[in-house]
Amino acid sequence: MFGSTSEFVRIKKHEVYYIEGGDVYFLVGECMFRVHRYFFKRESFKFQQMFGGPTSPGKEREGSSPSTAFRLSDITAEDFAHFLWIFYNPMPSAYDASTDVWITILRTACRWSFPEVEALAIKELERKTMTLVDPIVLYENYKDDPSVLALLYAKLCSRDQPLTMEQSMCLGIETSVRVFHARERLRSSSLDRLKSPLPDGVDLADVIQVIDEVWGSDTNCASGG
């Protein structure tokens, strides 16, 4: 797994997430993590596939030791630690993190197919900011994963309340017009002009489909394709 003895020497155990009793090893950069594969297999089909590969007779199971650790090249050690915090939070009733950290967690959950973590991150972003506009503006810096933007836009367009003037100014004219068109396509006429709820039977998949159609290539892959 390691290219040379000197490379092995450079590897450092993560100060928090090198856990005694952990049954899977991940190498992120030069940082080694030892955690429990249960959390990854439970929710992510991508990790189920990663862990489910056949093992030849007499060959050590991949990920079962530092020398066979899974290398994660699409994330930094810091961001991976933020993601692991979701599973190892010592106070599971209080997920207290900054908006930037929640966006990082949301990015990772979308990329690795952790739908429950996605839902938690969006919920916490809504709770912290009272609007998904701020996370959307921040996330515009991360163009590598448009599926996250699609989820945020879907939640924004699903809300009863339309954009305020301040929120429209933050998003810009082009995005605000797209949000308006998406909301109108998703709704029938409403007697309550202050609120415009979604019709019965419209679920998140329907909303994301409209988001993809209105935003085009800017948010494709929203459905995980």
From TrEMBL:
Which Pfam family, any one of them, does this sequence belong to?
BTB
Q: Which Gene3D superfamilies does this UniProt record tie to the protein?
A: Potassium Channel Kv1.1, Chain A (3.30.710.10)
Residues of the BTB domain: 22-89
Q: Which domain of life is it from?
A: Eukaryota
From which residue to which does the signal peptide run?
Answer: none
Q: What is this protein called?
A: BTB domain-containing protein
Q: Which organism is it from?
A: Armillaria gallica
